[in-house]
Amino acid sequence: MAKKRRQIPIPILEPIEVGSESPRLEVRRTPKLYIGGAFPRSESGRTDQLALKHGDLANVARASRKDMREAVRVARAASDSWGSKGAMVRGQILYRVAELMEGRAAQFEADLIAHGRGRRAAAAEVSAAIDRVVWFAGWPDKIPAVLGGTNPVASSHFVFTIPEPTGVVAIIAPESSALLGLVTRLSAVLAGGNVAVLLASESAPLPAVTLAETLAVSDVPGGVVNILTGRRAELIPHLVRHADVDGYDLWGCPDALMIEAEQGAAEHVARVARRPHGSEDHEDAFDGERGERIDALSAFLEMKTVWHPIGS
Amino acid sequence: MATGRRPRRGSTTASLLTGSAGSSPAATPAPSALSASSPWSYAPAPESRDVAQIRSRYGLFIDGKERAPSGGEVTITYNPATEEPLAEIAKGTPEDADRAIEAASRAYRKVWSRLHPRERAKYLYRISRILQERSREFAVTETLDSGKPIRESRDVDVPLAAAHFWYYAGWADKLAYAVPGRRPESHGVVGQVIPWNFPLLMLAWKIAPALAAGNTVVLKPASTTPLTALLFADVCRQAGLPDGVVNIITGPGSTGMAIVTDPRVAKVAFTGSTSVGVTIAKGIAGQGKGLTLELGGKAANIVFEDAALDQAVEGVINGIFFNQGEVCCAGSRLLVQESIAEEFLARLRNRMSTLRVGDPMDKNTDVGAINSRAQMETIGELVASGVSEGAEIWQPACDLPTRGWFFRPTLFTNVAQSHRIAREEIFGPVLATITFRTVAEAIEKANNTAYGLSAGIWTEKGSRILHVANALKAGVVWANTFNRFDPTSPFGGYKESGYGREGGLQGLHAYLRSS
Question: pTM for this structure?
Fold first, then answer.
C-alpha cells in the first residue's frame, strides 16, 4: 500500500465523436404469442408484417391452429385451480394486474400511438383501461350476492344458488378498442373465475402483446390467460369448433364470421356472449358506463342450486 | 294387487320390450310383493275423467281466437295408457306460425308493452288463480294425454304451474329490482318450444316469466301432448288476456323451427333433447337472438355408506321412477358406495317390487304409461343394449296392462361407465348402477358425462355434502332429497344440458335485456 506503483505510460488516443450525430439504436421487441405463461413464436414460424405509424413495421406472430390447440390445452389445465381460488384472492390478483399496468402505462400508450391513436386519446385509453381492471377486481367477491342467493321454496328445504365459472372461454377481443375493449372483456371473464384463450385485435395487436408481458410478471398463473395474435378469419372457424372450449365471447367477431362462429359454438352447446344490440365495434365502445357491464362475466357463469331438507 | 282390475299380459311384456333380455334368466321377473294375498294390495281408486271435457277437435290459438290450420291437416293425440285417440289436433304450418308471430308482434307493440306493469302482474295473478280453480280439470287432462300418474299431475304438475304464474306475477311490476342499476327491457316476441314430459308445467315455466318481463309469446307444445296447452288457451280467454299476447301453435318440429328462426322472434327458449337444442341453436346462429336451452341429462344419484339407507332408497326410487323416468333431471345413474352396495340394492329391489305400475288415472299408481310408442321403442332399444353390453338386468314381477304403453321398472347392475345405458339419456324407468369406493371416485364418475343437469347426494355428513356439491358439474344438486322443484329456485344445466336457468330471479333474467 505504501509502496509507490510503477507508472505505466498511457497511450494518447485521438478523441472520436460518439453519438452526437447517429442516435442510439433502439432495441426492438419481438411481438410473440403468450401460451402457458411462456412467449413462444408461432410453431408455424409465420409472422405478419404490420405497418405502424411513422413507417415502422412489426413482425407479429401469426398463430396457427396448432398454437390455438396448445393454448386451449394449457388453459384447461389451469382452469380448476383458477376457478377454485378464493374470490377475494382472485380480486387481488386482478388488482395487481392494474398495478403493473400503471407501471407500463408508457408502453401501452406507445402501442396505441403506433396503431394510430392520438397522443391524448392514447393516454386517456390507458388510464381508463387500468381503472377498468380495478373495477372488475372488485367483482369476484360480490358476484354471488348479486347473481346468486337463497331461494325461499315452499317446501321445508334450505336452497341456495351460487354462480360457478363455466371453464375455458375463448375471447374474440374487440377489433377497434384495442386496449380498453381488450381488458374489459378479459377482466370480466377472469373475474368470474374462467380462464381465457384470447384472440387479439388483428389490426392493433400490440396492446395485447404488452398486456401479455404484464400478465407474465403478475400473479395471474401461467395458462390462465393465453393470448394469440394472427388472422381471425383463419382461426375463428376452428376455435369455435374446439370441443374443449366451454364458452365464446364473440364481441369482436367480424360480422361476416358471426353465423359460422355461433354455429360452431352451438355444435358443442358452448355458451356465447356477443355485442349487445346497437353497439358497434368502435374505439369508444367501452368508454365509461358502456364498459362497466357484467354481461361478459355473467354469460360464463353456471348457476348451481343446492337443496337440502330442513329437519331435526 | 287387484288382479281383477287389469288384464294380465304375463311375463311376455318384459321379453318383448327388452329384446334378448327375455331369454336371459336374469330378466325373469322376481316374485312380486303385490300378489293378491299381500297386505300391500290396494283396491282400484280411479279418478273420474268426467271433469275433463276433451273435445274431438282442436284448432290453433292465434290472436285470441281458435283458428283452423292453414294446411287443413290434423294429427291425433292418443291416451298412452289405452292407445285410444283422444282428439284431433291442428297440424300448424309455417304459415300459421307466421300469423301467430304477427299477432304476437302486434300485441307486443300495441298492448302488452304499453300496459302498466301492475296490470300485467294482475293478469298473471288471474291466470294463476284460474289454474288453481280448474286444477282438477287440468290434472285429469294432463294424465289422459301424457300417461303420467294422476297423483303426480294433481300434486306436482298443476300446483307448480300455478305457483310459477303466481311467483312471476309479482315480478312484473318490480323489474327494476331484478337488474339493479340497469334498465331492464323486454325482448319483444318470444318463441318457445316445449317437451311432452311435463306439458303444462313446462308451459308455465316458459310463459310466466316471459309475460312478466313484458314479452308476448308464441309457444309450440309437443306433438304428443298438446291438450293442456290448448286448455291453457281457454284460461287466457277466461283471464281476459289481451288477444295475441299468448299464441299456441300445435304441429311438428318443422313448425317449431319456423317459429324460432323467424326474424321477428327476439328470444327463443327450448326444452327438449340435446340434439334438437343444437339444431335450434345452429338454426338461429347470427340472428342476435337471446337463447336458453334446457336439454338432456344423465344425473348421478350418489349414495354414500353413511346415508340413511331407507331414505336414500326412497330418494333413488323417486329419482328414477317419478314420471316413469321421463324426466330430464332423472337420477338415472345410481352411484352406490361399494361397502353398502349389496345391502342397498337388496332394499332397492324390495322397494321396486312394491311399485304400482299401471293405469295412470288410478290414484294409487306410482308408475304410469310411457308417453308414446316411439319412446317405448327408444327405451326398449337402450335396455336391450344394456343387456347385450353385459350389464345385469333385474325387473320386479308387476303386472302390466294389456293395452297401452307400459314399461316395467328396470334395474341394471354391473354397469360399466362405457355402457350406453350409463352414457345416454334413456328417458324411461331404467336405473343403471355403478359402484365406487372413495369420495373422489364418486365425484369423478358422477362428472363423467357430457351432461350436467342435476345430481343427488345421500350422506349424513354435512361437510361431505358441501364438498361433493361443490365438485359436481351439475346445475341442480339435491342433497338427501331428489326431484324437488319450486318457482323461486332456478333450474338448468351445465355442459351439454344447456344454458340459462328457469325459475327464480335467474329465470327472469333470461327474458330481460338491459341497456
Answer: 0.92
